[in-house]
């Protein structure tokens, strides 16, 4: 089977309009991404990918333009790419000046043209004038003035759909003990301390939720059955929606007192449930060795 043509996605536009979010969204979808590659190296990169024999067939570049010389060089390159044999997409992002000003003020970032135009509003205006000549090359233009980060990620998924090999949302399941603190990576935390505690059963105390006897003691209770039903339903509802929003990772942490028994058993039960549905996941029992 012939290798599909190389697809080059260029992300360009006004600073503060969401270029970083856009390139991260593409990266999370399995695209090989390079941020701020010098214009002079773009042609070399394309040839190297073509000649290397690599299976890589989709590359995204996030570019900044700081001078008229760079702009003119890009205009020439874009014209060549548009007429060439690769699949060329130019995603051009804009936003209105008040929104860009507010975003720079909120993030306390420095505008790329600040060395020549120290007044932020002037830097924004000059960048817009500089880039206007490249807008006609855009295959997709997005005005992100009213967009949230999630809106932009979702819109990119709509206008630049990828093939069926795009990575699914990856789920992380973490068990932990509340007495050792919350896991810093958790997107969501649930508390399993209301379940029957094997710690108070002498023959189970020194064992863990990875062992059948402890797992049965925890999971055979009516409360555990109901709890798992709700958790599974919650994941069934949330995961497709997180994936639709462009989220690449979701970590659910389940806690009990020490992180040895109840949380471990619940995480293992959830892992089995998700594994049966083909959802990529990892499990970690943070406090099992404490």
Would you mind describing this structure in some detail?
The protein is an alpha/beta fold and 290 residues long. The chain has 2 domains: 153 residues, 3-Layer(aba) Sandwich (Rossmann fold), CATH 3.40.50.300; 116 residues, no CATH class. The chain has 9 helices and 9 strands. The strands form 2 sheets. The chain has a 5-stranded parallel β-sheet, covered by helices on one side. Strand 2, helix 2 and strand 3 form a beta-alpha-beta unit. Helix 1 crosses helix 6, helix 7 crosses helix 9 and helix 8 packs across helix 9. It is elongated. The mean pLDDT is 90.
Assigned CATH architecture of the largest domain: 3-Layer(aba) Sandwich
Rounded to the nearest angstrom, the distance between the terminal CA atoms is 53 Å
Q: What best-fitting shape do the alpha-carbon axes yield?
A: elongated
Please identify which CATH superfamily of the largest domain we are dealing with: P-loop containing nucleotide triphosphate hydrolases
Stated plainly, the CATH topology of the largest domain is called Rossmann fold
Give the CATH level 1 class of the largest domain: Alpha Beta
Q: Rg, please?
A: 25 Å
């Amino acid at each position: 089977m012939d290798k599909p043509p190389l697809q080059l996605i260029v992300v360009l536009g006004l600073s503060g309009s969401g270029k970083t979010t856009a390139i991260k969204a593409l990266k999370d979808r399995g695209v090989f991404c390079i941020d701020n590659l010098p214009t002079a190296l773009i042609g070399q990169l394309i040839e190297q990918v073509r000649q290397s024999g690599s299976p890589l067939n989709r590359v995204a570049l996030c570019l900044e333009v700081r001078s008229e010389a760079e702009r003119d060089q890009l205009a020439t390159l874009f014209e060549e790419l548009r007429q060439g044999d690769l699949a060329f997409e130019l995603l051009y992002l804009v936003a209105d000046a008040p929104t860009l000003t507010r975003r720079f003020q909120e993030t306390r970032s420095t505008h790329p043209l600040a060395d020549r135009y120290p007044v932020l509003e002037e830097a924004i205006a000059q960048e817009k004038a500089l880039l206007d000549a490249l807008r006609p090359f855009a295959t997709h233009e997005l005005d992100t003035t009213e967009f949230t980060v999630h809106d932009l990620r979702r819109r990119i998924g709509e206008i630049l759909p990828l093939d069926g090999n795009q990575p699914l949302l990856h789920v992380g399941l973490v068990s932990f003990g509340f007495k050792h603190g919350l896991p810093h990576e958790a997107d969501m935390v649930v508390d399993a301390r209301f379940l029957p505690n094997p710690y108070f059963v002498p023959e189970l105390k020194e064992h863990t939720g990875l062992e059948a006897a402890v797992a049965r003691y925890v999971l055979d209770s009516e409360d555990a059955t109901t709890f798992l039903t709700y958790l599974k339903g919650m994941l069934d509802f949330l995961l497709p929606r997180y994936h639709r929003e462009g989220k690449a990772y979701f970590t659910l942490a389940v806690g009990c007192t020490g992180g040895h028994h109840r949380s471990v058993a619940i995480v293992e039960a959830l892992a089995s449930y998700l594994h049966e549905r083909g959802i990529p996941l990892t499990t970690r029992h943070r406090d099992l060795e404490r």
